[in-house]
Write a structure and sequence with these properties.
The protein is mainly alpha-helical. The protein folds into 2 domains: about 90 residues, no CATH class; about 100 residues, Arc Repressor Mutant, subunit A (Orthogonal Bundle), CATH 1.10.10.10. Helix content is about 70%, strand content about 5%. The protein contains 8 helices and 4 strands. The protein has a two-stranded antiparallel sheet with strand order 1-4. A two-stranded antiparallel sheet has the order 2-3. α4 packs across α8.
Length: about 200
C-alpha cells in the first residue's frame, strides 16, 4: 500500500468516526429530551472515549505523514528516481492547514453560523484564491475530482473541531461555528490587523 493510499484510509476512517460521534450525539440528545439521564450519561462517556480514539488516529496520521515527508526529503537530496515525490512534499508547495482557519471562521460567521460544506468551501475559495498555489489546485491522489486545497480545508475543520472552535455535532454535510470559534475569529482578525499596521 502506497503512502497516499494510507493517507486516504486515514481520511476515510476519521470521517467515519465523525459520523459515529454525530450519531451518538443525537442519541444522547434524544435520551436527555426523554429524561433518560442514565442513558444520556452513558452516551456522553462513550462519545468521550470515541473522541479520544479519534485524536489518537489523528496523531497516527500525522506521524505517518512525517515519516514519509522525512523519507521523501532524504530521497530528494540523494537525487534518486523518487525525486518527484520529494518535490511534491517539499515544504511551501502546499498552503498550510493553519492558513484556512481565518477564512473558514469568516465564511461560517458570514453565512449565519452554519452552512452546507459546499457553501462554506465556495466562500473560503473566494477568500483564498489569490493565495492558493498551483499545487493546491492539483487533485488529491485519493480523490481525483477534489483539489488539494479542499482536502486541506477539511483537515483544518477536523483540527478546529478538536479545539472546540467548530461544532462536532452539526448535521452531516454542514459545518457550524461555536462561541469559542467566534472568539477565535476576533483574535485572528485582531492579530492580522496588527501585522498589517
Amino acid at each position: 500500500m502506497k503512502q497516499n493510499e494510507v493517507m486516504a484510509a486515514f481520511e476515510i476512517l476519521l470521517k467515519e468516526i465523525e459520523t459515529v460521534i454525530a450519531w451518538f450525539n443525537e442519541e444522547g440528545a434524544m435520551a436527555f429530551r426523554h429524561s433518560d439521564y442514565e442513558t444520556a450519561r452513558e452516551v456522553v462517556e462513550r462519545v468521550g472515549q470515541i473522541r479520544a480514539f479519534r485524536d489518537r488516529v489523528g496523531e497516527l496520521q500525522n506521524e505517518w505523514e512525517r515519516l514519509f515527508a522525512k523519507r521523501a526529503t532524504e530521497t530528494f537530496k540523494k537525487g534518486t528516481r523518487h525525486a518527484a515525490l520529494a518535490q511534491r512534499l517539499q515544504r511551501g508547495l502546499r498552503t498550510p492547514e493553519a492558513a484556512f482557519r481565518l477564512p473558514i471562521l469568516e465564511a461560517l460567521v458570514e453565512l449565519g453560523g452554519s452552512a452546507p460544506i459546499g457553501d462554506v468551501l465556495g466562500r473560503v475559495h473566494d477568500k483564498m484564491k489569490e493565495r492558493l498555489t498551483e499545487y493546491d489546485c492539483q487533485p488529491v491522489p485519493s480523490a481525483p475530482n477534489e483539489p488539494r486545497w479542499r482536502n486541506t480545508a477539511q483537515w483544518c475543520r477536523y483540527t478546529m473541531i478538536r479545539e472546540g472552535l467548530l461544532a462536532p455535532d452539526s448535521p452531516r454535510g454542514t459545518w457550524a461555528v461555536t462561541e469559542a470559534g467566534r472568539a477565535e475569529l476576533g483574535r485572528l482578525k485582531q492579530a492580522s490587523g496588527s501585522e498589517q499596521a
